[in-house]
Amino acid sequence: MPGVSKEQIAAAKKMTAIEFLRRYRSADLVKSSARGEFELRSHDSFKINGESSVWHWKSRGIGGKSALDYLVHVEQCGFVEAVRMLCDEVPGYIPVAHEAVEQKRPEFSLPPAARNNARVVAYLCGRGISPVVLSYCVDRGLVYESLPYHNCVFIGKDENGTARYAALRGTYSHGRPFKAETPGSDKRYGFCIPPLHPTTTVAVFEAAIDAMAEMTLSDNTADKYRLSLGGIYAPKEQNVEIKTPVALVEFLRQHPDVDTIQLCMDNDEPGSHAALAIARNLGSKYKVSLCLPQIEGGDYADLAKQIKQARCACTRHRTELAR
User: Fold this and answer.
1) Cβ of 226: how many Cβ atoms within 10 Å?
2) What's the pLDDT tens digit per position in 113-153?
3) β-strands 225-228, 201-205 pairing
4) In whole angstroms, what is the distance from residue 281 CA to residue 269 CA?
5) CA–CA separation, 286 and 276 (whole Å)
6) How far apart are CA 210 and CA 28, in angstroms?
């Protein structure tokens, strides 16, 4: 590989991710409620085992073990640069500030669009999203099908309507679901379904598909903003202080008239803990309510799919009785 030798790569891989975090990101590393497990304050759903160093970033669907894996995939450091940084550990390593790494974010660009959205339509309708909600989002340039892998692309835009963020979701039904973000995505600009008319309410979700599902379950009514955070940071300990997700902070900055926040996270332990943490942060300034989906351990997309399947079963039953 240009710039680094095989020996340097081998040396760089010797440092584990947990060792790197303990030495150089200790302020960002916090214990989770699971025994021997740690989390990061600055990244959503990042978990790492304190013994094995195996880490998994749930919201991105990626994982690893070494410090090299961490630098490349989490802090988005270039491979060659990361190898050189870690090799400088002998005799002395000067860590690069997290802010400096973030400033080197790759240039953002949306994936090429497919000629039509056939696979995305089939996938989202299969997840319980109504055609009305799907059309509402597609017409506003928030959802489309990409090439060459035919992923579902959920777009986040800035105040000028420029795409700044894109979450990708695989449309196939077999194997492990593909989830990722387009390189260079700015998490301050989350996927957001706008209302038809002025409103002072925003509903906040973990994922874009949950926002679409809740709108489906609300009779397709575009009566409020529906914002996706693109994942959550979920503290297990109630006394852990965390920052409000950047997507919500930016949204509230852009919409000073909003005074009501509905927290619609997943109805599981991480979701409820994240919702409570956000409520503590914003409860003194906004009217905050918890609106978790009425499905234990699931999200709004699960609920929408479950209800659609039940309705389809009833329709089939009535058809058979009528014969």
Assistant:
1) 29
2) 999 999 999 999 989 999 999 999 999 999 999 998 899 99
3) parallel
4) 19
5) 14
6) 29
